[in-house]
Design brief:
The protein is of the alpha+beta class. The chain has a seven-stranded mixed β-sheet, sandwiched between helices. Strands 8-7-9-15-10-13 form a six-stranded antiparallel β-sheet, with no helix packed on it.
Length: 833
C-alpha cells in the first residue's frame, strides 16, 4: 500500500469534503481517504498496482475540484522522432506522484506536472536517463517546489481570483442597490434632478427604464462574480451531493430569473435584480476574507517550512593535486549528503542535523524546541536543521539530511496531525451530509406555504430565496478543522507536537497526570552520594565490585556507578555471565587474582527484591543504614558477593528545577498527579513530598507500569496522561489515554507518543493541556455558533421576518457566519499558554 497527500482547492463546505472522500473511496485500489476542509488536503491510502496518483487527481477534478501541481520544464537531449517523445511521456507518467507529462519534440522540452513529496525532479531525470536520454545537469535543480510551496501558490492564486470577482461584484452591485433603494424611497428626483421625477413611481411606465438599468448592472455580477458558484454547484448536483454553491446559485438565479421574467413580460411586479447582485457580492466579500483568514490559520506551519535554507556552504576538495585544501561551495540543500562538512556563518540557519566538528558559537533553537535562550555549541555538540547560528562560525558534519532531519519530521507530523479528523467532527460531518438537501426542502416548503397562506407569489419567492442564502454549511464544516489547525500550529511554535486531532481532543479531558520519576521529574543525572560497607569490606571495594558487575549495563544508575569508580581510579575487574534483571538489578561473576590462582565470585547489585531472589540476608545493622539513606530520599543500590550483603550505595538524582511548579500548576487546574517509579518506597515518598505529588506507586517493574496506569484509568477522575521519556516507558505510554514524551530537540523520538515535548521542560505538560483545553473550547464555541445560527435564522427567513430585503440581509449574515468561526479559531494564535 502507498499513501499520498493531495492538495485540493475549490472546497467551500463540509459537504464538499464528504463528496471528495466518497469519490476517492470508490476508486479501485483505494482503501482509505480522509479530507481536511480547513487544511485543503486529502490523505489517501491506495494500492499502486490498481490505481495511480494521476488517476486519483483525475477523479478529484472530475468531481469539480482541483489539485494544484508543481510544474517544471526540462530540456531533454537525444530525441530523434515522435516515438522518442511518446516513450518519455509514458515512462514519466508511470512515476508515482506524476500527474502530467508532455514532450515538445521541436523544442526538445518536457513539461511535467507532479506532486512534490510524492515525486521529485531527481526521480524524473533518473527515469529519463534510464530510458537512454539525457537531461543537462544544470537543469536538474531548475524547480525545487515543496508540497507546501505548491499549496501556498495555489492559495495565493485563489485569493487573487476571489479579490477580482469581489471587486467586480461590488462595482456593479452597490450602484444597483443604491438605485433600487432610491427609487423605493422616492429619492430619485431629489438625488438626480426633476427630470427623473416621471420615473419615480413603480406603477408609472418609466419604471421599466430603471429596471433595464438594474438588469444591465446585475448581469456582469451574475456572469463573472457568480460563475464559480454556478460551475461548482452544477458539478455538485451532477455528483449527487448538493453543497453550499448550490444554495447560493439557486438563491441568486431565482431572484435574477424572477426579475427577468417580470421585466421581459412587461408586468408591474417588483424586480429584485439588486438582490441577486448583492447576494453574490456580499458572499464574495465573505469568501475573500475567509480565504485570507484560512491562510493565517496555517501560518505556523509556513513559518516552520521557511526555516529550511535553500542552499548551504559545503566544504569540497579543490582538485586532485591539492587534495588537502578545501573550498566552500554554495550547494542546493537537496544535494547535501550525510558526511558532508557544512559551514554556518553568523546569522545563517543550520541546513542539516549534524555534529559540530570545528568552531564555537551560540545557536538559537527556539524554532524547534521553543526555548528562547540560545545554546552554546562546541565540537562534539549536536546541531539541528532550521536553528539559527548567532555568533561564531561553525563547521558541522551532516548526520541527517532532507526528509530525515528533525525539522522535516516536525513539519511532516504537524501537517499530518492538522489533516486528521477529530472524533468531535464526526457529528458535524453527519449533519453536513444532509444539511443542503434539508435546506432545499425547507425552501420548497416555504414557497408552498406562503403561496397557500397568502397567495403572494412575489413574497413567497423572496422568502424561499432568503432561506437558500442564509443557510450556512460552511460554518459547520469549518468549526472543527480551523480550530485544530490553529491549535496545532500554536503547539508547534511552543515545541509541543500532537500526533493527531484525537490526541488534542483527548488531552483536553485529562484529569490525571502520571509521571515516571527518573529522567522525567528528575534531571536523569544521578550522583553517588554515599557508599556504606558492611563487615570487613572497605567502601572502595564495595564501589569497585559494583562497578565491575555494572560494567555492561546501560542503566543510568549503573553508568553513574561505573563513572564514579573510574573517576576515583578504582580497579574494575573483568566479569563473566552477566545478566540484567529489569526492575531488580544485575548479576555477574568477577575474577580476582592472577590467571593461575584466580578466584571467581558471584556479585549481585540491585534493589531489595534482587537480594531476596538471590537469598541474601539483610541484618539489622544493614537495615538501619539502608533506612537512613532512604529517609534522605536516596536511591539505594545493594551489593552482595557470594550470597552475602557487603555494602550499599546511595545515589541522588537532582529534581528538575521546574518540576515543583509543574505539579503545582496541574493541581491548580484540578488535575490529580501520580508518580510511578521502580525506586524504593521511602525514597519515592521523599521525592513526592518535596514536589507535592498526590499519589506514589513505588517499587514497580517497568512492565507493570502499564497496569498501574490502567488502575488510574478506573479512578473516574478523567483521562489519564503518562509522562515519560518515550522509550523506556513505552508500555505505560501506550496504555495511557495520552502518552507524553519529554525530550530535548533532536534527541527525542518524535513519533513515540501522542504528544511530544521538543523542549526538555516539564512546563510543556501544562502548556499542552492548556492549549488542548483552549482548542476544545474554541471548537465547542464554533459548533454552538454554527448550530445556533442556522437553527435561529433559517426559520426567521422562512417566516419572512426580513421582508423584501431578506435575501440581501441573509447573504451578509451567511458571510459573517463563516468569518466568525474562522476569526474565533484565529484567537488561539494570541492565546497565552
Amino acid at each position: 500500500m502507498s499513501a499520498i497527500e493531495l492538495p485540493i482547492t475549490g472546497m467551500t463546505c463540509a459537504n464538499c469534503a464528504n463528496t471528495i472522500e466518497r469519490v476517492l473511496r470508490k476508486t479501485p485500489g483505494v482503501t482509505d481517504a480522509s479530507v481536511n476542509l480547513a487544511g485543503e488536503r486529502a490523505s489517501v491510502t491506495f494500492d499502486p498496482a490498481q490505481t495511480s496518483a494521476a488517476q486519483l487527481i483525475e477523479r478529484v477534478r472530475a468531481a469539480g475540484y482541483d489539485v494544484p501541481l508543481a510544474r517544471v520544464e526540462l530540456p531533454v537531449v537525444g530525441m530523434t522522432c515522435a516515438n522518442c517523445a511518446h516513450t518519455i511521456e509514458r515512462i514519466v507518467k508511470q512515476l508515482p506522484g506524476v500527474a502530467e507529462a508532455s514532450v515538445n519534440l521541436a523544442s526538445e522540452r518536457l513539461s511535467v506536472g507532479y506532486l512534490p513529496g510524492a515525486a521529485s525532479i531527481a526521480e524524473v531525470v533518473a527515469a529519463i536517463r534510464r530510458a537512454g536520454y539525457d537531461v543537462p545537469t544544470q537543469a536538474t535543480t531548475a524547480d525545487r517546489a515543496s508540497p507546501s510551496e505548491v499549496v501556498r501558490t495555489a492559495h495565493r492564486a485563489e485569493i487573487a481570483d476571489r479579490r477580482r470577482r469581489m471587486v467586480v461584484g461590488l462595482i456593479f452591485a452597490l450602484p444597483a442597490f443604491t438605485l433600487s433603494m432610491s427609487r423605493d424611497l422616492g429619492l430619485l428626483a431629489a438625488l438626480f434632478g426633476p427630470h427623473f421625477a416621471p420615473m419615480a413611481g413603480h406603477r408609472m411606465p418609466e419604471h421599466i427604464a430603471v429596471d433595464w438599468i438594474l438588469f444591465a448592472l446585475t448581469l456582469p455580477v451574475q456572469v463573472y462574480t457568480g460563475w464559480p458558484y454556478y460551475r461548482h454547484g452544477y458539478r455538485a448536483l451532477r455528483n449527487g451531493a448538493p453543497n453550499m454553491d448550490v444554495l447560493i446559485a439557486l438563491g441568486s438565479s431565482v431572484a435574477f430569473g424572477y426579475s427577468a421574467l417580470v421585466l421581459l413580460g412587461g408586468g408591474d411586479g417588483h424586480v429584485y435584480f439588486e438582490t441577486a447582485a448583492m447576494i453574490l457580492a456580499l458572499i464574495s466579500v465573505g469568501k475573500y476574507l475567509e480565504a485570507r483568514a484560512k491562510g493565517r490559520a496555517g501560518a505556523a506551519i509556513e513559518r516552520l517550512i521557511g526555516l529550511t535554507p535553500k542552499t548551504a556552504r559545503v566544504l569540497r576538495r579543490r582538485d586532485s593535486a591539492q587534495n588537502d585544501t578545501y573550498e566552500e561551495i554554495e550547494t542546493p540543500i537537496e544535494h547535501i549528503a550525510i558526511g558532508d562538512v557544512i559551514v554556518a556563518r553568523p546569522g545563517e540557519r543550520i541546513a542539516a542535523d549534524g555534529v559540530v566538528v570545528a568552531g564555537r558559537s551560540a545557536v538559537d533553537e527556539s524554532p524547534i524546541t521553543g526555548e528562547s535562550v540560545p545554546r552554546d555549541k562546541q565540537p562534539g555538540d549536536p546541531v539541528t536543521a532550521g536553528t539559527l547560528n548567532k555568533e561564531g562560525v561553525l563547521r558541522y558534519e551532516a548526520a541527517r539530511v532532507g526528509k530525515d532531519t528533525t525539522l522535516a519530521q516536525v513539519i511532516r507530523l504537524v501537517e499530518q496531525a492538522q489533516g486528521s479528523k477529530a472524533p468531535i467532527q464526526t457529528l458535524a460531518d453527519r449533519i453536513s451530509a444532509v444539511f443542503v438537501p434539508t435546506v432545499l426542502a425547507i425552501a420548497v416548503l416555504t414557497l408552498a406555504a406562503w403561496l397557500l397562506l397568502s397567495s403572494d407569489f412575489e413574497r413567497a419567492v423572496i422568502n424561499a430565496v432568503a432561506v437558500l442564502v442564509i443557510a450556512c454549511p460552511c460554518a459547520l464544516g469549518l468549526a472543527t478543522p480551523t480550530a485544530i489547525m490553529v491549535g496545532m500550529g500554536k503547539g508547534a511554535e511552543l515545541g509541543i507536537l500532537f500526533r493527531n486531532s484525537a490526541a488534542l481532543e483527548q488531552a483536553a479531558r485529562v484529569g490525571v497526570v502520571a509521571f515516571d520519576k527518573t529522567g522525567t521529574l528528575t534531571q536523569g543525572k544521578p550522583a553517588v552520594t554515599e557508599v556504606l560497607s558492611f563487615g570487613d569490606v572497605k567502601a572502595e571495594s564495595v564501589l569497585a565490585l559494583a562497578a565491575s558487575a555494572e560494567w555492561n549495563s546501560e542503566h543510568p544508575l549503573a553508568r553513574t556507578v561505573v563513572e564514579t569508580a573510574e573517576a576515583r581510579r578504582l580497579p574494575i575487574a573483568p566479569v563473566g555471565r552477566f545478566q540484567a534483571l529489569p526492575g531488580r538489578g544485575v548479576t555477574a561473576t568477577t575474577t580476582n587474582g592472577s590467571a593461575s590462582g584466580a578466584a571467581q565470585h558471584l556479585v549481585a547489585v540491585g534493589n531489595l527484591k534482587l537480594m531476596q531472589t538471590q537469598g541474601v540476608a539483610v541484618d539489622a545493622q544493614a537495615s538501619q543504614g539502608i533506612a537512613q539513606l532512604q529517609a534522605k530520599g536516596r536511591t539505594v543500590m545493594l551489593v552482595a558477593m557470594d550470597g552475602r550483603l557487603i555494602g550499599a550505595i546511595g545515589l541522588m538524582d537532582t529534581l528538575r528545577p521546574e518540576a515543583q511548579a509543574c505539579i503545582a500548576e496541574l493541581k491548580r487546574r484540578g488535575i490529580f498527579t501520580a508518580m510511578l517509579t521502580g525506586d524504593n518506597a521511602r525514597a519515592a515518598q521523599a521525592v513526592a513530598h518535596d514536589l507535592g505529588v498526590d499519589e506514589v506507586v513505588a517499587e514497580v517493574l517497568p512492565a507493570d507500569k502499564a497496569t498501574q496506569v490502567a488502575a488510574l484509568q478506573t479512578s473516574g477522575r478523567g483521562a489519564v496522561a503518562m509522562v515519560g521519556d518515550g522509550i523506556n516507558d513505552a508500555p505505560a505510554l501506550a496504555q495511557a489515554d495520552i502518552g507524553i514524551a519529554i525530550g530535548a530537540g533532536a534527541d527525542v523520538a518524535i513519533e513515540a507518543a501522542d504528544i511530544t515535548l521538543m523542549r526538555s521542560d516539564l512546563r510543556g505538560v501544562v502548556q499542552a493541556i492548556d492549549l488542548a483545553r483552549l482548542t476544545a473550547r474554541g471548537i465547542r464555541q464554533n459548533l454552538f455558533w454554527a448550530f445556533f445560527y442556522n437553527a435561529l435564522l433559517i426559520p426567521a427567513a422562512a417566516l419572512g421576518i426580513f421582508q423584501q430585503y431578506g435575501p440581501i440581509l441573509a447573504a451578509g449574515a451567511m458571510a459573517f457566519s463563516s468569518l466568525f468561526v474562522i476569526g474565533n479559531s484565529l484567537r488561539l494564535r494570541r492565546a497565552r499558554v
